[in-house]
Amino acid sequence: MKRLTPDADDARFIRRVFLVILIGALTIALYRVGTLLILAFGSVLGAITIHAIAERLHRHLRVPARHAIGLAMLAALAATGFLIWLLTAQFGAQINALIVETPQLLTRLAAWMSQSAVGAKIVEAVQTGYAGAQATQDLGQIARGGTDAVLNTILLIVGAMFFAIEPQRYRDGLLLLLPRGKRGAFGDAFDDLGRNLRLWLRAQIILMLLMGTSIGIGLWLSGVPSAAALGLLAGMSEFIPYIGPTVAMLPALGLAANTGTGPLIGAIVTYAIVRIVQDLIVTPIIQNRVIAIPPAITLFAMVGIGYIFGLTGLVFAAPLLVAIFALTHSLYVRETLGENTDRVD
Predict the structure, then answer these.
(1) Which of 62, 68, 267, 296 can bridge 54 by disulfide, Cβ–Cβ 3.0-4.6 Å?
(2) pLDDT tens digits, residue range 176-215?
(3) Cα–Cα distance for residue pair 259/261, rounded to 1 Å
(4) Distance of CA 239 to the CA centre of its chain
(5) Is 20 exposed, middle or buried (0-12, 13-18, 19+ CB in 10 A)?
(6) Residues 6 or more apart from 61 whose CB is under 8 A from it?
């Protein structure tokens, strides 16, 4: 007898319940390992950068493809080491000066904001939020955060090397998980994704170099202390659109205000001119082939990703948004809706 065997309707209901439970469990699991997945995405960006360097070595210097990958890895490691050297040996004193000056600048900023009713409320809210925090706890969090940052950086670099050595292996492995009839569409989508990320990275590196150089020279001419370190900070912050440059501008304006009225006016003019020229002239030229994402969507998406996944999510929010738009464009707009759209070359 099979008196407890569910009928067809009950069986369908049970399958749906299990499917909902499975989706919920996967969502929770993805959220718990979200930072790790974002680091894996960062490693993919690193692998794309390595392959872009290798392609140029292979095309212009006739270096064999396998050897070009190795040379590109060495070049990427050398660039990373050079950046660390700049941050420590060359600009270490200036960066330390920034760190030492920051508490005084924040105190002056709080005093200035407290002159108005709204500003006083903001200062009070911030102070209340940090009230009761012990210095040892704060130092412990900073130490743990620094250790995590070092470990995450090492993991990202090693992962990028593994992805760069055999990218086709990982791509084909993902395609094997899909139904045979869908692999062609997803393969084209992955190719479009790689091209969009490569173009975005190239444009972003150019913008970072231009921003850092322009801001550094402008602040130096304005007489602002630590101009080289501030220029380096401005260039690196360009990797996080809108939010990064705004945050990087605050210590520069604070140091300029602490120096005098002339340097402050010069710093404001420098940032205004560089930002206007970059947003209205340079960026449209450099990013003319990069997938277009409305600024408002970029800003709110970055804030949302940063809120969920913390600083790591905020750092990689912009390229992650490019990836989401590229996959949506390829898989939904073109393959599902059938819209005849141009592919990225």
Answers:
(1) 68
(2) 988 888 888 899 999 999 999 999 999 999 999 999 999 9
(3) 7
(4) 6
(5) exposed
(6) none
